[in-house]
Amino acid sequence: MRRMAEEPRTSRIQREVVQLILDRRLTAGAPLPTEAELTEALGVSRNSVREALKALQALDIVEIRHGYGTYVGRASLTPLIDGLTFRTLARHEDDPGALAEILQVREVLEVGLIRRVATTVTEAELEKLEEVVARMEAAAGTGAGKDDGGADRSFPDLDREFHEVLYASLGNDLVPQLLAAFWTVFRRVSGARGRPHDPPPGITARRHRDIVTALRARDAEGAQRAMAVHFRGIEARAAEASRGVG
Fold first, then answer.
1. Which letter, b or e, does each residue of 226-243 get, where b requires 16 or more Cβ atoms within 10 Å of its Cβ?
2. pTM score
3. Residues 6+ positions from 113 with CB-CB distance below 8 Å
């Protein structure tokens, strides 16, 4: 009972610490007031402040550097990634909907955004996409490509790079973070379960080439169709894997 009574107070202190960060316009990496200062400012015990700060650290809102103090965190999507990974892995291993839900969210984001990309992508970005696809095509037969520095890159790494470059022209920082979050969850889960959910690399490279071709023509509908086909291929492979096929 005592613990239940403390929870609302901890939540209130969390909100007050967040509000303090906002009111003072503190940015990532900026130091927060000391525990003693927060205790006095909020009128609560030091233990209550510590509990609230630990909870905020789990959300990446604050960063506790032992021996140095507490700082404003990056507010990254790491907590979302960890939560979604656990949520998906907690589903029964034979549940075909576990990974399908992650794919569906990615598909909605990417198929919806690609129309805007067709109107905003620059020639330099198209050239970069062409380079990545060329490396994907080369890697399709060997399992590895070369980055600009000559280092080996796995095919999934090149695939991820393509999607990161693809949405750069939108100038929206949240888009690549969200896409990377869902990408990471998908890879973690499929890796943990040891299932090959991707189509053959050659087919994947060709589908990415189709996307670039449509973008070069400024064909928004064509780019959208090509992206939808790309995701249908991944979803079909995932469905086969869930049934033990392939």
1. bbeebbebbbebbeebbe
2. 0.72
3. 167, 170, 175
